[in-house]
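Subject: AbgT family transporter structure
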Amino acid sequence: MAAVDTTAVDPVPPRFSRFLGAIERTGNRLPHPFWLFWILLAVTALASWAMAAGGLRVTEPGTGKSLAVRTVLSAGGAREFLSMIEENFVTFGPLGTVTLIMLGVAVAERAGFFETLARRALARVPATYVVLAVALAGALSKFLSDSAYIILIPLGAIAFQTVGRSPLLGMIVAFVSINAAGDANPLIAPGDAAFAAMATEAARTVSPDAVVRPTDNMYFTTVSAVVLALVITFVVERVLSRREHTLAPDDATAGAAGDAVRPAPGPREIRALKLTGWAALGYWALIALATLPQHSPLRAADGAVIASPLFDHIAVFLALFFLVIGLVYGRLTGSVSAGQDVPAFMADGLRSIAPLLVIFFAVSQFVALFKWTNIGTYVAVRGADALRDLGAPTLVLFLVLIAAVAGLNLLITSGQALWALVAPVLVPMLMLLHINPATTMALYRIADSCTNSITPMSTTFILTVGFLQTRKKQAGIGTLVSCTLPVAMAMLLVWTALFVVWWLLGIPLGPGAPVR
């Protein structure tokens, strides 16, 4: 197997490659993410003081509530924020998800399941197709919510390393696929139900009988998933592959040598994989059967399946899933020989993400302060008001909307939070221009997705930096931005062009959801 070449360089690197190298060097000169977020917290505190002193306030769409920018640089503000610090960290969403999922993933990983699966599945796959495979997997995995990052990023590393390519590049492809292409998921995810519900509420301010369904973008997102996976593959092979030598892990020499001599899975491992596969199917079959009764505890109180305890707490079921397959595979191969191996594997897995948990403490305080000050709400509402006042032609308005929401998304990286802020303005505004709410929702998906992978404000961005640093200590924000920027920009351009063609042809966005 070919190993990652840690010494290869482009004798005359293309201009764009030099530009990306400059971005990486500049970005990596930034402070460690832990300190960067404390600096951002201080900047936010100062900005909140200035904005509050100016009496800035905004009317929250939908509720009509007047919100003023609040400052933490006052006796009352400081007192309130200090009382929140512990809760900010403990209730920080990614903290619980990462920790819980890792308990199960650690057992499956240290039992050898992931490595054997990757070697078996990719034994005859050329390295070029690995990019496409990981990209498609990322687009399809968004129904797992934030758990997708915990599962697929390490798998992307294993898949790339198995075929002799940089495991860091595998992580980056997985990240950008979930983060940017995930909203092109052909499957119906819990987020789709939330998006549709908020769009329905916004649409009913204009038409009381309006209904937006989770399936209203299904046709568009299904085609988009394939198109975006191809875009990711093209950019990675034509642009990022030129810089793959800069993504060699710290232990590249030892790792590559080990990969070169590692034998293919033997009969015992193959048999264990097959039986583990049956166990995996059995696990999900039991979950499906348990969900069938109308009053199942896995369903919501009204019988809904999408917005239900099953999907709302999918991390619990995924952690148990990986624990089961890890135990089955480990017992069949002998890598799990005693009961004490399981907690030992779990503890080892948590140790591997300890640096990430430290970063999460700083991130959680910044995110909480940014939300508490109402700065994000103020910027989002003012931006939406500016779009409403443009009075531009429809397609031009679409392009401006995509650009504006993409910019706002650099600040407010939670897709549902930003949609909750802008939908009450954008959906009614565009309905008055005879534009279907499903079309507005599709435009939002495009704008919301692509810039998630280039902003350090995103918790999943910092999560990925933490994963990169487990393989290469010098990897930083600049490393990730320099690799995700060309992919994100290409996806934004191609996805926007796809929508324009879709609009001009008048193809329905989903069942019963005309594009215009």
